[in-house]
Prior knowledge:
Blueprint: E1 12-16, E2 20-25, E3 32-39, E4 46-50, E5 59-61, E6 67-69, E7 75-77, E8 83-85, H1 88-97, E9 102-106, H2 119-128, E10 130-136, E11 138-142, E12 146-150, E13 153-159, E14 164-170, E15 178-183, H3 187-194, E16 200-202, H4 203-211, E17 224-227, E18 230-231, H5 242-256, E19 261-268, H6 272-284, E20 289-293, H7 297-304, H8 311-319
Helix pairs in contact: 1-2, 1-5, 5-6
Amino acid sequence: MTIDVSIIPVQRQATLRGSVTCEGVALHSGLHVSLVMKPAPVNTGIVFVRTDVRGIENNIVVRADAVTDVKRCTTISNMAGVQVSTIEHLMAAFSAVGIDNIIIEIEGPELPALDGSSEPFLRLIEQAGILSQKAPRRYIKVLKSVEVQSGDAYARIDPSPCLYLDVAIDFADGAIGRQRIEIEPDVKVFRERMASARTFARAHEVVALREAGLSLGGSYDNAIVVDGDKVLNPGGLRFADEFVRHKALDLLGDMYIGGPLLARVTTIRAGHALNHQLLLALFADPTAWKFTHLATPQMVQKIHGNRLEGISRLEDTVSAL
């Protein structure tokens, strides 16, 4: 069997080639926020820096155990209690393009909503350019199935040679209803099918959200609003199934908080809370996952000559080198 190296994931750590800046209104706090994304050395990880906070630790490293709130968005905090929220749309873009090391300086407690999707962040990343670094990328390889449930919401993670998402939603609102998407979110698929899908809210929820101090910056410019079987946004939808595409986008961002995954993730009626619960359940079982590095084409040829006996074995071989 001749090896087609184009189908084998070839991964090194990556960062930006240069810095990029954006600003806008934060969805929940309503604050005007600016941020700068900067390149970072290998093994830095994804680090937010609250430049408006002084006198205490203002760096927040993205990790699963740094998540402190999952109501309507994902929030991470450091040991000093400094936090940054609504990180999931930016994290989804990082996942799709393979950014491992980056510093995000932000002058406020929440990321700007921009248009309510990941597309503006993706454009910024591609504007800066992506730099492949001279260090292997560490993946989380799922070894056995893990599942969690909360009421009628369900999430499961299974072994897979690549990241694959299967997301289903079911809303009583006629404008949303039942929708499902199955997607392998590489950068091309992400750009074409996921990145521009916007966050959404139901009209009857908006008042309650604002009374709870959420969605203060929400508008038709950065969210879809539905009322029963009607979409209230003057421009309508970008996709007939934009709602489930955005749920898949959120899932992608939430899972990337734990790092790049080799897994199939299935969710039904899930949100940020269950996404995070699934990630914690996976890491809580040391027999359910391991760290691994993926092979370069040169390694493939060196180890297996002109034969490939399965990517799973290949990963294990390279990890042991």
